[in-house]
């Protein structure tokens, strides 16, 4: 998380600006001059090799017009945003392409850090793209990024422990209690640490209960009874036998590892857990199944919070035309397919969900697409970072949540967050 603003010495600020603008501008050539352009692409760190492969493919297919240099940002979303913000605040011309978390579009657009996509380029960027994914890349009806991949959570479970997936939150907790009484693996793995994952969990439950965190114009908290229902669901899990003892410190990867260790019966997580289980625990993989996210209100399907990365072109790039061309290549069908198969990240192109190449390795593709078609989006506001910090702080640790009191207090914290009061952006 960003630390307190203690006021840097002027000399240090100037040195930082010089370092960011100097070392980040390694591109060569120009759009109006001769020679190939080197585009610098800053994105999340990918260990599968899919992103580097996409960069190499696009450079090769450009016919010598450009090459792409892939820079790995820090592991955490907070660290990624922090590095990009620092570079862009320094007007770094070396940020040609950047991978934005789906929550950053409003902030980067309002700050003037991302180029708008207009005309024929917007049409190309929108073609075949999932509607919810496009919403994450849009601010005030203007497109500022192109969805590179999407993401959503499913319920993953072991069919040797439960004969069928629970349809509701309460059914899942009841099944966990029965398994605990039988001294069998019974934990429900979910993101309970004080970070963005806890905000996502809450947002999914709030929208699944028919509410929203903010009003439609994002000017004030909405919350209400749906937020109380959501907070109660979090509290009930945290105080039940279903809770992993380390719930308040768990993120997505800790959930994956716990499920692979054999101590859990259920996991609410992203599709990357499927190839991981297949490779790391082939015996457990035989019993690893998936189902829609459980309803928090019986009879009302869950609206799972959409995730993913959107590709934006830096406002200070010296090669915006080449960068936009490269973005469209990076998110092409072939590159998204490789990203899904090798990196485990669901595509943002609708047509890929019917592709035999994907469904052969993604037997849950139809369930992912269904979840994405009904997905909820996290509050869209330039102050999102502040709002997310307020939510995660109010709900941590999950076992200490008092539904009515916590939601009442959260409303005031969100008002302050929207006004940038008491929080560091």
SSE blueprint:
Elements (H helix, E strand, L loop, with lengths): L9 H14 L13 E7 L6 H12 L4 E7 L4 H13 L7 E5 L3 H7 L7 H8 L4 H6 L1 E2 L2 E2 L2 E6 L2 E5 L10 H13 L5 E3 L6 H13 L15 H15 L13 H10 L2 E6 L3 H8 L1 H4 L2 E4 L15 E7 L6 H11 L2 H11 L12 H6 L3 H9 L10 H11 L8 H16 L7
Parallel strand pairs: 1-2, 1-3, 8-9
Antiparallel strand pairs: 3-11, 4-5, 6-11, 7-9, 7-10
What does this structure look like?
- It contains 18 helices and eleven strands.
- The protein is α/β, with parallel strands linked by helices and 425 residues long.
- The strands form three sheets. Strands 2-1-3-11-6 form a five-stranded mixed beta sheet. A four-stranded mixed beta sheet has the order 8-9-7-10, with helices on both faces.
- The chain is globular and about 70 Å long.
- The N terminus is likely disordered.
